[in-house]
Amino acid sequence: MGRKILVVDDTRNVQLMLEVYLQNHGFEICLAYDGVEAMEIFHSGGIDLILLDIMMPNMDGYQFISKLRSESSLPVIMITAKQQEEDVVHGFELGADDYITKPFRLRELLMRIRAVMRRVAVSEETGVVMKVQNLTLDSARHEVRKDGELIDLTPLEFALLTQLMESAGKVVRRQDISLRLMDNRYAGSEATIKIHIRNLRQKLGDDLAEPTYIKTVFGVGYRFLEGGS
Questions:
Q1: Any idea what DSSP says for residue 161?
Q2: Mean pLDDT of 189-193
Q3: CA torsion sign, 87 to 172 to 164 to 182?
Q4: What is the DSSP letter of 9?
Q5: 52: Cβ–Cβ under 8 A, 6 or more apart, which residues?
Q6: What is the pLDDT of residues 128-155, one digit of tens each?
């Protein structure tokens, strides 16, 4: 059996459409009507990725991903009719790995799912360990530790930190970050990059005024500092 995807949506027709299509492409599918039911299924284990609607009863998508991120970095792709920029930004701020709006093409969704899973699989297989300052990034375990304490990152945040740490001491241009994101089917806009950099800084405990880890090089990109500011 293939990777297991949890589809969280309160519209039965959407559930069935995604179930049939994704099963035909080799995935095992679990269905949840709302965030409460989804959390129960998640706790039962075995889920590899979550497709998450936002507007649902009992526990909506925003509430669900907030709770999930306190426990897990499991990949989440939000699927929603909410198309305003602030909705997309809010989803990414809460830890979504990707965001696709309804109506959507099933083929595009499939490509995004495969891209997210491929990135996680590559991280698990490469086995690279990087140490910069008091941070250790282990790609095989998909772990980042600060002074030995685990920091919970989403797959996209992990990918961004990997790219920055690989070039520690050097400037990574926004264009290069954008291309790397788009190569893996993530939104690569400047606004999206800023959101994820901000989330990374918060999780690392960085100070924007006097950064220890990620320094903004205005008009160019970002530099991961090798020995503090």
A1: H
A2: 76
A3: positive
A4: -
A5: 8, 38, 61, 64, 65, 76, 77, 78, 79, 96
A6: 788 999 999 987 777 899 998 999 888 7
Asked whether residue 185 carries a pLDDT value surpassing 60, the answer given is no
**What are 66-90's pLDDT values in tens digits?**
999 888 888 999 988 877 778 888 8
From 71, 159, 166, 174, select the one nearest 115 (Cα to Cα): 159
- Identify whether the C-beta of residue 210 lies closer than 8 Å to the C-beta of residue 117: no
Q: What token pair was written down for 38?
A: 């989804």
Q: Is the pLDDT of residue 125 over 70?
A: no
First to last CA, the chain: 49
Q: Look at residues 107, 77, 54 and name the one whose alpha carbon lies nearest to residue 186.
A: 77
Rounded distance between C-alpha atoms, residue 74 and residue 69, angstroms:
8
Two structure tokens written together for 82:
């909410």
Q: Which domains, from first to last, does the chain contain?
A: 4-121 (3.40.50.2300), 127-224 (1.10.10.10)
CA distances from 45 to 18, 42, 206, 218 (A): 21, 5, 33, 43
Find out whether 78 and 100 touch, Cβ atoms under 8 Å.
yes
